From TrEMBL:
<protein>
    <submittedName>
        <fullName>Uncharacterized protein</fullName>
    </submittedName>
</protein>
Length: 183
């Protein structure tokens, strides 16, 4: 029998990462509560203890990150699609649900797709913005809108005329002119 190496998988214990997180929080993020008014409170933790725990956490994270495989099993039918950024995205069919949102595998890509089970296709999720100058309809990734902070604007340069359009979330108060009915 000939074996074909697929990669390496480094196992890790989520509870260990949780314990490291809690230890770092105790050492570096939280100030101790004094037991009486005579007890002084140190504003900063012990630098050596913090550095030691950070090194321990980094070693654990490095070990996990060195694995080249990240999946729950081999086998099953696989479907794939190419993102508009050029990345080939693969998913196991048995793990997909109709209407499920699937993000591109590239960390810096804002594209996402809706899986349609009827024809096993992935439809790009977009937000249509009509240019305020030329009425051209511009498509931007829906994730940009979903992640847009309330205190920031997104600059969209119109593909039709090159005009700058700014998108931002805005809170409006609408006054009712007619009474509500409970029909």
């Amino acid at each position: 029998m000939q074996f074909l190496p697929l990669g390496t998988q480094v196992g890790f214990e989520p509870s260990k990462l949780g314990k490291l997180w809690n230890a770092l929080a105790k050492l570096a993020l939280h100030i101790g509560i004094p037991t009486s008014k005579d007890v002084t409170v140190n504003q900063y933790g012990d630098v050596e203890k913090i550095a030691c725990k950070v090194r321990e956490a980094l070693a654990e994270i490095r070990e996990v990150s060195e694995g080249t495989l990240a999946f729950v099993g081999i086998g099953g039918q696989e479907v794939s699609f190419e993102c508009s950024c050029g990345a080939k995205n693969k998913r196991r069919l048995e793990l997909l649900n109709d209407g499920q949102t699937v993000n591109c595998i590239r960390p810096n890509c804002n594209e996402s797709y809706k899986y349609e089970q009827a024809d096993m296709s992935f439809v790009r999720r977009v937000f249509e913005v009509v240019c305020s100058c030329c009425n051209y309809s511009n498509s931007i990734p829906q994730n940009i809108i979903d992640k847009l902070p309330t205190n920031r604007a997104y600059l969209l340069i119109c593909s039709g005329c090159g005009e700058n359009n700014y998108l931002s979330w805005e809170l409006n108060v609408v006054q009712r002119t007619m009474p509500l009915t409970t029909d």
